[in-house]
């Protein structure tokens, strides 16, 4: 009887010792994230070792029946350890306090920020302090990361059950897509935590409504910003204001403002959403803006106000800069939006070029009548100089355009100037009756070509390929043998796929000694089918067609 009592007392003492030890381990674990001294670290290490030893003993008894095992096995110390850490993490996240120096009005934002801050600080403690107390195979950093992740995720899910104001919505998205990944990808944590094994902080059904809310906010802001810029420019134009000059160049503040406003919001959306594709929805606002801008541009084009020319020049600079921005940042736009935007810009740029070039051609109309006339044949250099002198007075007003815009505009004017020159020659006011006249005319064309090209290049045109147009046509005038003419035409048609039968016929009719039958045979060798012509037109590089703008009857 006494022996039984002694055994019972012994078991009771063992049970109490175990309970005391368990309480000690529990206290150690609960305070582990606040330890700072090496002594405290050593205590934690011993507690961890004891837990793992108990787990090892449990595993030894795993294959035995319950009645064959000691009544205290299994003790499940490791599972209890994980449960305790789970409660520890939940408590610490609940008790997280915001730094009083940070001013945040929203209590919800305070709650989110202080929890994120606590999560980061505690995971850093685990990585730098606690992890050394555990064997590497226990992967304690991943364990803590999972516990903090689940706790934080649960709280954020609760928050999304309610309708959030715009500021809270943005903060939450920024946290999920930018701040939280930055925490896990920090220099120290990314080495010890595999974040790919963690579930999304918020599931798709919770995050999608927030993204829609945010995108609506950003669309509204972009629209407001771009509308304000356009309204400012239209008001200034209506009130007769001239664009400002800076270093004798028109300032195109509207282009800077439009691009900065747009790009700032798109970049911000990419950061907040963590996804470039989702942010593309905002780019639709550029299409809406350009549609409105087109209406303003059309009104300005029709206006006779004193400041209209200057405003159109600045508008042209704005359009070209926007076009280049969209082209260089094409990845920001969905394909359909990019195509629509570039189409709108191309239409407006073409309209601006037409406005300025048509004014040029009107001013030069009387002088152009001399081209291809007997007066031109007698002294083509004088006719060419008169044209360029008057053109120079017209072009002086473009001196205030920025270099890039001026280069493109003058390139277009260069081409139109030359096209009108060729058209006037093709009107056949003169007949070059013999070889001598034809060679003299060809020489005049080459001299004129060099003078025109030198002038436009000095003015800013970069259309270098135009220098060969007149010399190539002059070459046809010098040739006398019909078969040689055919061969030369074959070469020219490869160079200029838009050189049509009408153009060839009009030009060859200048040769008074070319018989109608020879002309007919030459033209018969030039076969165009609609499909072939379309194929040729498709092969033209943008901006390098020429004869398509030379209108002949």
UniProtKB/TrEMBL annotation:
Pfam families membership: Sec6
A GO MF term: SNARE binding
Superkingdom of source: Eukaryota
One GO cellular component, as annotated: exocyst
GO term, biological process aspect, one: exocyst localization
Record's protein name: Tumor necrosis factor alpha-induced protein 2-like isoform X2
């Amino acid at each position: 009887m006494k022996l039984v009592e002694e055994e019972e007392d012994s078991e009771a003492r063992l049970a109490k010792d175990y309970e005391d030890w368990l309480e000690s381990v529990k206290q150690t674990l609960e305070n582990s994230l606040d330890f700072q001294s090496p002594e405290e670290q050593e205590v934690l290490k011993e507690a961890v070792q004891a837990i793992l030893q108990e787990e090892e003993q449990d595993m030894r008894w795993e294959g035995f029946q319950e009645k064959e095992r000691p009544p205290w096995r299994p003790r499940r110390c490791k599972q209890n350890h994980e449960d305790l850490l789970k409660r520890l993490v939940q408590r610490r996240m609940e008790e997280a306090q915001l730094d009083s120096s940070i001013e945040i009005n929203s209590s919800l934002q305070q709650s989110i920020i202080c929890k994120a801050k606590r999560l980061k600080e505690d995971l850093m403690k685990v990585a730098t302090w606690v992890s050394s107390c555990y064997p590497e195979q226990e992967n304690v950093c991943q364990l803590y990361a999972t516990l903090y992740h689940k706790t934080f995720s649960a709280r954020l899910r609760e928050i999304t059950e309610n309708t959030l104001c715009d500021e809270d919505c943005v903060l939450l998205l920024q946290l999920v897509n930018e701040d939280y990944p930055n925490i896990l990808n920090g220099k120290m944590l990314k080495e010890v935590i595999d974040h790919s094994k963690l579930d999304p902080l918020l599931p798709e059904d919770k995050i999608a409504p927030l993204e829609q809310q945010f995108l609506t906010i950003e669309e509204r802001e972009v629209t407001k910003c771009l509308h304000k810029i356009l309204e400012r420019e239209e008001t200034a134009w209506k009130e007769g204001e001239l664009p400002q000059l800076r270093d004798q160049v028109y300032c195109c503040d509207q282009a800077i403002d439009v691009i900065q406003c747009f790009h700032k919001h798109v970049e911000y959306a990419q950061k907040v959403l963590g996804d470039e594709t989702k942010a593309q929805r905002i780019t639709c606002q550029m299409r809406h803006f350009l549609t409105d801008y087109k209406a303003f541009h059309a009104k300005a084009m029709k206006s006779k106000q004193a400041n209209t020319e200057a405003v159109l020049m600045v508008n042209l600079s704005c359009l070209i800069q926007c076009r280049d921005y969209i082209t260089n940042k094409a990845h920001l736009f969905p394909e359909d939006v990019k195509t629509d935007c570039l189409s709108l810009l191309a239409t407006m740029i073409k309209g601006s070029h037409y406005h300025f070039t048509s004014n040029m051609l009107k001013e030069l109309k009387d002088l152009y009548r001399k081209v291809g006339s007997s007066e031109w044949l007698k002294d083509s250099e004088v006719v060419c100089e008169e044209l360029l002198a008057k053109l120079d007075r017209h072009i002086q007003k473009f001196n205030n355009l920025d270099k890039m815009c001026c280069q493109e505009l003058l390139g277009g004017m260069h081409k139109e100037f030359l096209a009108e020159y060729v058209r006037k020659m093709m009107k056949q006011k003169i007949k070059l009756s013999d070889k001598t006249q034809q060679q003299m005319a060809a020489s005049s064309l080459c001299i004129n070509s060099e003078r025109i090209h030198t002038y436009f290049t000095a003015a800013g045109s970069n259309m270098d390929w135009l220098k060969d147009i007149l010399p190539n046509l002059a070459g046809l005038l010098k040739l006398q043998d019909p078969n040689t003419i055919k061969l030369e035409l074959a070469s020219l048609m490869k160079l200029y796929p838009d050189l049509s039968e009408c153009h060839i016929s009009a030009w060859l009719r200048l040769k008074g000694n070319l018989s109608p039958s020879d002309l007919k045979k030459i033209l018969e060798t030039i076969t165009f089918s609609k499909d072939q012509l379309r194929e040729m037109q498709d092969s033209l590089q943008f901006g390098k067609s020429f004869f398509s703008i030379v209108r002949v009857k």
